[in-house]
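Journal club side-thread
Mid-discussion, someone asked how the predicted structure for our own chain would compare to the paper's figures. Pasting it here so we can look after the session.
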Amino acid sequence: MKQELVRVNSIDEIEQPGILYTPNEDTDKIVIHVHGLNGNFYENRFLDILAKSYTDKNYAFLTFNNRGRDFITELLKGNDFTIIGGSLERFKDCILDIDGVLNWAKEKGYKEIILEGHSYGCNKVFV
């Protein structure tokens, strides 16, 4: 399994850093993980287990920070910063984040794309 730090933009250009785990063999399948309210891609250790499980089955696995990251935070938007986070997030804006990450995955050549969510992220993947 390989790991790569990636930067994915939402539709409205908010930078969403994440980590992409890829299997040792090439694949066109990916599982994209959407974290819960105030979550992030680096604190939950269960993500390490998911990454290993998926890559062992020849799926790539991407987990990324969306605009609901942390209670309040600064996120890069173009050359400026925007103040956002779970306490300021409007639910409908999750579509901008998810569409951005889906576009990124398609541009990278993934053909089978699966969205999964944890906690509040489950609601976001069903929008």
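Post-session note: The first strand starts at residue 2 and ends at 9.
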